[in-house]
Every structure is written in structure tokens, then in C-alpha cells.
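SEVERITY: medium
COMPONENT: batch folding queue
REPORTER: lab tech (J.R.)

DESCRIPTION
The queue accepted two submissions in a row. Attaching both inputs and their returned C-alpha cells so the on-call engineer can compare them side by side.

ATTACHMENT 1
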Amino acid sequence: MTPDGTHDSTRNGTGPGAGRGLDHDGCFVREGSLERVSPVFAPVVAALRSRIAGHFGDRLHSSYLFGSIPRGTAVPGVSDLDALLALRDEPTDDDHAAARAVEEALDTAFREVDGAGLLLFGADRLLSDLERHDLGWFVACLCTPLDGPDLADRLPRYRPTSLLARETNGDLFRDLPGLRTKAAAATTEAARTRLTRGVTRRLVRTGFTLVMPRWGGWTSDLAESAEVFGRYYPAHADQMRAAARAARTPAAYPHLLDELLSGPAPWLAGEYLAVHGAKAPRP
């Protein structure tokens, strides 16, 4: 029995999830490592370390990479650079301005990445009970330590449970009105491309975590995520595959954003509530 009251057939590596991003005890294997960073992206990562040290100094508790670069699957000129910074205190407006300056500098200096994104959080929030199965899980399982003390040492081990599904992606129903508003306001090709990339990634990951406890494993690969989802919801499989393709090349699917927000997204939000319930509200 798992902490959220569901049966976990992956325990001790005997269930169907063994080898699907899990160790022999059925717990998540932390994905990514600095050793997997391709030589082509090594200068970008070095510049990131230098710039965040210069901008944040002693305010920085620790820093992490996540996404395709530390997984070793990044494509030069296509993939973006993703990093998370844990600050000793909650981030201020000045901190967010500094993060934007770092993002812009890296995006300008390196053609190897298609944009850079820095997430800022206070270390105490990342370790809090409220974030234990959301941001805490994200740091412990999907982030690769770059500098500073690793917060994962103070977090539990995780399994693919319904509790984890609920707390990571059980808020799509709350965010749908805002996403529709953003879509209506995105009138330029560049704005719609950015929003399409973000929305399609979110929908594919939400679709995957909807079925994650039943599948009994983990993957960050969007195409695989869509395929796994489709095994349990074949009637919606084609739409999820289209979303996964658009997440990689959003400019090639100019009309998909509105289609997803008007049909598949509301259905997915409702199904998520029925299966896993609503994510705990944040202050």
C-alpha cells in the first residue's frame, strides 16, 4: 500500500514499472546528470553558472538543470536551457529581473539554445509540506544539481502514486480560463508559437500523469508520454500525439492551440478531477 492508499505493484521491482524510470524498489530514478550534458552545450552551462553566481551571489542556496540538456537528448538550435534556482529567501522583484537578464544574455550569446528559462523559488518553499509532492518531487527527481547543497538530500523518495499525480498536475481546471485568455491575446505568430509550445507540453504531461499510477513508471519524453496515455484513452490518443508533435515544432501547428483549449483540455481537466482529485490550492 502506498502513502496515498493505493496499491503499488512496482515495489521491489516486481511490478510492470520496473525499469520505467524506477529503481528496484519502485522509486523514481533521478533523471539527468552533468555527465550527460553534450559538449556542444557545455559552454552554455558554464556561462549559466557564471552569470547566476554574479547576479545572485550569497542569496543563492543551490542551482539545478532540468530538461533535455541534462538528460543528454537536447538538439542544438532547437532545445532550450532550463534551470531552477533555490534562493535562501523568497525571490524578490529584483531577483526576477536578474533572472530575466540572465535568460536574455544566454539566449543572445548562444545559438545552441532556443531560449533560456530560470525558475526561482525560496529553498524553504521547496522543502515545505505543501510542495512535498510537487516542487519537492520536481527537484528530487527531475532536476540535476549544478551548484550548492542538494535539496534532494532533505526530501523523501517518490513512487508514481495518485497523490503525486494530483499534486503535480491536478490544477489544469483552475488554469484553463487564464490559458484561454492568453490565447485570445496572443495575436502575433511569435506569441502564439510560444503559447502553443507551453500549452502542448502541459497537456501531454498532464495526460501522462493521469495514467502514470496505472502504467507504473516515469518518462519525460513527450512522444512516449503521449503513447502511454493513448493505451488507456484510445479515443483521445490522436489528439495527444498531435500535441506532442506540436510541443517540439509549435510553429508548424498554428491552429492547434485553439482546438486543444476548446475540446481536449476541458475533457482532460474533468477526467483528472474524477480520477485523482484537485491539487491543493496555493496561497
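ATTACHMENT 2
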Amino acid sequence: MGIKMGSALDRTGSEWQADTYQKGMGAEPLKCRFCSIGVTHNPSYTRELHDKSVFVSAYFRLLPGGEHAANCKYGVQEEISEIAKESQGLLESVKGNQYRMRLVMIKEALEGGAAPTNQSGEGSNARSSKTYVSTPGKLPAYINSAKRALKLRALCASDSDVEQHLELVFEGNTVVNWRQFYFETERHMEAFHAVSQNTTQHPIAIHGYVKSVRRCVGDDKNKNVLNLRMNKYRADSEKPDNGVGLEVSIWSRQTAWFKGIEHDDEVVVLGMWKASTTPPTTAPNEGRYKTFTKNRLSLSLVLMAQITKV
């Protein structure tokens, strides 16, 4: 389907904006502004999250089976090719217009960045103790490349828009399905199950909307947290009167790493997550659920580049 488009042309050449367009307003069929491939309009809608309805803007997208021309700014293939040129091996060309992204390299970078610095750089621990610089422009090229690929995915309508051009592999060339790597807002609970149940962990990316950003928690400048909006509680499959919810939190020792990120912003966060569950608590009021269980996904940032603002 390609990258979501904010505007399109009708057959007379008139330009229409996605947020104000309604079917029949223009002389259809509609087409891409840059390569004239046929497109259709997706109206705006709301996503119901735990305590708020989140507005999702309208957009134009490709018709089924359509593909943007080479060099079109909305083409996924061209964007991935550009990312691959600067990825220093993270994205490898497989064949034709297909590339492969190695998740194990991302995992090693994040684990290496969390380790203490080995000043001498010698000995068996030299590689694992490498410390990565968090200053913009000096981050490992493959972390920045992963960030660009995630932003590209977030701008598309579905996983299929990217996975036809970019394959994910982990240890031993094990192929990872995009649905087990990129989790949109509605699939946060699936991300929790992936982290809590998989014996071998690979980096995953979680998409969501910012609920709050708290800096210097408890007057500690090393404790800063960004919380994503929760989905509504769901009935426990084994105990229907118990509601199960999930809280997603991102922690940073650097206050500046959350700079520019505000309430309701759309973000994608990449990393090695930890899962935990609190025991059920009694519901404060009579309602559908008698008890509530809260699951948690948490991440301690190693690099500022792990957060992508869409």
C-alpha cells in the first residue's frame, strides 16, 4: 500500500487534502501527486484507548496491487534502498528490491551500550563492554538505520507494505515475522505475551500514543519516565470477572532524551523489553470486573535513538 499520503490529485489535476476530502468531492479516480498511480481515500477515525479516544488522521493510500513508480517520494522500496546505503551492514541486499535487517546487531548494540566501559579495550570482555555514544550524529549507524526503518513502517498502513521489501532475521538467520517485531497500539497485549513467553528474546518495536512524560521522578534527575496510553481492560480468559490491562513505560537516566515529546504524540520505541505482572486487586466500584490485574512492559533506554516520533 505504500506510505500514507496527505494529499492527492483527481483526474483534472486538482489537488485534494486528505483531512478535508470526502468521496465524490473530486473527479475520481484519484492519483498520486508524484507518479500518477491510482489511490483511494481512507477517512479519519478514532482509536479507543483506556481513558481517551485517540484521533487518527485521514490519508490517501494505494489501490490493492498498486505500487509507486521508481523515485516516487511515497515509494517504500526507494526509501529502504536509501536507508541500506548508510546502514553499515544492518540492512543487506538479498536480491533485486529485497533487503534483510539483522536484529541480532541491534540487540548487541543495546546490550553493549548498557555495559560498563572497558577503558583498555583489551581482553575477552572488550567487545561486550563497548559503550555507545548517545550524542546525535555519533550514534551507531545501524541503530539510526533501524530508527529510520521503523519510522517508514509507522508511516505505512500495514506490515505488508514494508515486509515485501525488508526481511527480518535474528540469530542463525532465523526469520522473524514482522508481526512479532512491530506491535501497533491495538496489539500491546500481544507484545507482552511475546516478551513474557519467548525463551529467546529479540528486539521489538512498540507503537503508541504518549499518555504522560514525567521528569525527575521523586526529585531524582536520573529517573525520567514516558508512559503510553493503555488499551481498555479485557476479561481474563480463565476468570471473566477479572479485568486484565497493560501498562507500557519507557525509562531514561537522561532528562534530555524525552525533549520534544509531549502528551498525545505518536511514537515508536525499539528495545529489549521486560515483562512483569502485579497480583489482582479488588475493583474499587461495582462493575463488570470484580478484580483487576495489571501487566507491565518496561524499557530502560540505552540510546536516545530508540525513540522515534512519528
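NOTES FROM REPORTER
The first strand starts at residue 7 and ends at 9.
No errors were logged for either attachment.
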